[in-house]
Amino acid sequence: MVRLMGRSRPRSPQRPGAAASARRRQQRDGRSRWRPAAGLRSVLSGRSVAGQVFVLHLVIVLLLVVAAVVALVLQVQRDSTQEARNRSLAVAETFASAPGVVEALRSPDPTAVLQPRAEAARELANVDFVVVMNTDGIRYTHPRQDRIGKKFVGTIEPALAGEPVVEEVEGTIGELVQAVVPVKDPDGTVVGLVSAGITTENVGGAAEDQLPLVMGAALAALALAVGGAALVSRRLLRQTHGLGPHEMTRMYEHHDAVLHAVREGVIIVDGDGTLMLANDEANRLFSLPDDAEGRHVLDVGLDPGTADLLSSGRVATDEVHRVGDRLLAVNQRPTDRAGGPPGSVATVRDSTELRALSGRAEASRERLDMLYRAGVGIGTSLDVTRTAEELTELAVPRFADFVTVDLFEQVLAGGHPDAAGALRRTAVTGIAGEAPLYPRDEKIRFVASSPQGRSLATGRPVLEPRLSEAPGWQAQDVERSGQVVDYGIHSLITVPLRAGALVLGVVSFWRSRKPEPFDTEELALAEELVARAAVSIDNARRYTREHNMAVTLQRSLLPRSLPEQSALEVAYRYLPAQAGVGGDWFDVLPLSGGRVALVVGDVVGHGLHAAATMGRLRTAVHNFSALDLPPDELLGLLDELVGRIDQDEAQDEQSAPVTGATCLYAVYDPVSRRCTVARAGHPPPALVRPDGSVEFADVPVGPPLGLGGLPFDSADLELPEGSRLVLYTDGLVEDREHDIDVGLEQLREALSRAGDSPEDTCRTVLEARRPARAADDIALIVARTRALPADRIAEWPVPSDPAAVGEVRAAVARKLAEWGLEELTFATELILSELVTNALRYGGTPIQVRMLHDRHLICEVYDSSSTSPHLRHATMTDEGGRGLFLVAQLAERWGTRYLPAGKVIWAEQPLP
């Protein structure tokens, strides 16, 4: 404010005391207060502010000039000393390395040779001495003849060690800077020393030569500084009008007291829109920041209407502006009408009555708006937790500073709440994250005396206006309750979440920032908010329960674990859809002869009906695979089954037919390394070769299951050992944003960079293709092929002669002994005897026996007949009919597998 008043006298309309009297005298006699002669005397006297500033400025400049002169002198001396050190070292090293010095040192009279050369070098290099000495420090040369032959004064040990040394010492010719360097012969041996030096008197000569220049510069700087100080003081004298410190202090105190004591806000803005002054009332009404003065009015946080008015400088009379929860009347007038500086001054007063009326109307509007937002913003998803979070996010900070939602744990799982059970903190939202409330996911049991406990017991809301005076609330957790109060939370409303007769949990509204406690009107608003949220939370709970039931049904219909087999290394993933359970399924089915069947299917649609249909189809595939049917024939039977299911459900108006059921069935043989694949409306399998190349197998596609009328075709794939066969459902490659061709190409890229193991392949594929919210189920199977080693396969052709049975038994016994399975010799001979005898008697040629050493010992007998043997119980009088009975008793499993040209009867025995 001193700066503002010093710019021109019209800035202050009233000046009390001596200043006001002086101004009246000026107006009376018409003479200016400012006289150059009087101003000069005021400056020199030091009584005015300008005089004191001039004296202080002059003292500071004088001290700075003296300090600069001393620093420059010291710097010159230091530089001269450094120059002396460098020159003495250079002269000594040059003389030591000069030709003939080493020979002179070894001559009978070194002084005669070196003294003239040393003196010549001294005069040429402008140093005070050049001394040559032996390794004991005895001088051979010196400017003073009487010093030759005496001990050298100085440090020579480093030079004897081969390192030069420079020092400042008290020598025979006074204080000096000297350097000592070694003289070395060609093999590096130190044979003498050379010292060169300059006395301190000569060193300081350079500094003394430069001293007049330094002093002249200092005097010039002092003269400039004095002139500058005089100009600044003269300018300050004009600005302060010759007022002394006491007068200015008293004027400022009176002005400040009046300005900040008035009950109206005063704001002064200059012509550029910069806020020059705001009194206490203006700061309070507008909530101005501490650094508002000096900033543009558009940048100090004012509302746009008020900021535009103050920056425009236009005339305003009782213009009403809404600022926060206040209605302010603003009057503004320009300051340049009477010759003052450009700008404006505005006065602001608080309209109390209008504010109260507007506050009540605004509160009603806010509550209606909050209830409307609750109706459209809560319950956007069928997720219990997310619905609770939406309630807290709506209420903070518009209604409360912190909101917590605690639900019974059974509600989160979709069940009915247990009034005696524990609650879990489901959602927490606040204006700050460090409040000492129970954190999210905390398991809580509220005591009966707490507001939450009373709300749960009575089903009614509870208001605790002052938490620090509520012993029932503090009994919940004494330590945490103290922390909550110390944090600043002082008022609480608890409202039970009621859905009909069920109490799902409790909602707590906490207040800390607003000093007023919650009132009864706010209690009613909180109850209405929670009532609307309770409907959405109960809907989400019901959906969660039905969804969990459907997921449980679906999980129960899917395989719990994969069966043991040696043909394939299998990894799988199953990801249900976010919107509900679907009809995707998969299976790994061991078959006879060490073979394994892989099946992937999909029933289009979601819900319990799709899951139940999927279970029926999966059971049918299990049954049909037990018949050892080729893949195309199995799909044909499955197609007929789906057609019958559609016919049965067509009679029920509430059931929908099975539309869009697809399936892929593949059988892999580890002996031949051949995989037979057939598919009904399903995406093609992907094949990853051992070298990492990826291709989609060319398998003929048949119509989806249930359409009927068309046969299914199969394809045979040759799979080298280590190949990976990838089966999947359409949820992995199809979505709403991309076509299936894009999905297949992305799947190909993911498979090309996946690791060798099936687990790595599954992980890489899902990371690349899994959507954020899957709209359909995803089933994925990755199977890496293995081959049965040739030394574990034995085959024998059987001639059409009963005597060949004995030869087969002998060959089998030898092979079992080679495999280390002698314990199985008797049972295996008996099984093969019966099977070969049946083939000779009832089958057709050619006949062949194959034995496989896998996880089981597998015996197979092939013949060209398609007649299937049947197990029967022979009576006591029957002569035959006991062969297959014996086979069934000795083998763990047995059966018949049909081929395009004949059949195979097989039997499996467990290994010992």
Automatic annotation (TrEMBL):
Residues 1-34 are annotated as: Disordered. Residues 379-547 form the GAF domain. Keywords: ATP-binding, Cell membrane, Hydrolase, Kinase, Membrane, Nucleotide-binding, Phosphoprotein, Transferase, Transmembrane, Transmembrane helix, Two-component regulatory system. Gene3D superfamilies: 3.30.450.40, Histidine kinase-like ATPase, C-terminal domain, PAS domain, PPM-type phosphatase domain. GO terms for molecular function: ATP binding; kinase activity; phosphatase activity. It is found in: Cell membrane. Residues 1-12 have a biased composition (Basic residues). It is a multi-pass membrane protein. Residues 565-785 form the PPM-type phosphatase domain. It comes from the Bacteria. Coiled coil: none annotated. InterPro entries: Bact_Sigma-Reg, GAF, GAF-like_dom_sf, HATPase_C_sf, HATPase_dom, PAS, PAS-like_dom_sf, PPM-type-like_dom_sf. GO terms for cellular component: plasma membrane. The chain crosses the membrane at residues 54-74, 211-232. GO terms for biological process: phosphorelay signal transduction system. Its main location: membrane. It holds the Pfam family sCache_3_2. This is Histidine kinase.
